[in-house]
Structure formats: structure tokens, C-alpha cells
Amino acid sequence: MEVIPLILILVIVVIMIASMWKVFEKAGQPGWACIVPIYNTVIMLKVACRPIWWILLFFIPFVSLIVSIVVYADIGKNFGKGIGFVLGLIFLPFIFWPILGFGSAQYEPVRDPT
Asked: Could you tell me if residue 96 is inside a domain?
């Protein structure tokens, strides 16, 4: 019965890719960027209105965790969501990314994207 967990993981991966694709498109970025390693982080930084040099911070242990939380918080804020939703993005991403991507949230950056 190892097939069922594998299918479940595959379904979650497909849902996450589709959700991030929609979030990127809502933010005016290429949706396909979500499947390209490292480039998807660059695009996520753009959506969060953070400087691209922050990509270097993702290579520092423990700092990357804090930076990820800040980026998720900024993405939530740019879609008009509060701290509760951001916590959902962090702890239950397979539920909250689809809500963000396929829901009615509109991208309105708090800061001017660079």
C-alpha cells in the first residue's frame, strides 16, 4: 500500500504548482516561473516587493527561515490578507495557497515593486 501516499503527495504537489502559478499570474509575473528552481524565489521576492539581493539570504541557515516568513507575510499583505492568513500560508500551504491563487484576492502591492 505504498501507492496511496505517493498519489497523495503527487496531488498536493500538483495543487501547489497550480496555486503558485495563479498567484504569480495575479501579480503580473509569468506563471511558469513557479516550476523553475531559484527563479521562482526571485519571482516570489518580486511579488513580495523585496529586493532581489535577498536571494542570498536564502542560502544562510536559520536566516532563510526568517526571510521566508517575511516574504510570505509581504505576499499576504500585498494580496490584502492579514496575519491569520499569513500563518495559514506558512503552516498549511496546501490549503491557503489555493485560496490565494483561485480566490477573489487581488494583487495590490503595498510598496512599489522593483
From this structure: yes
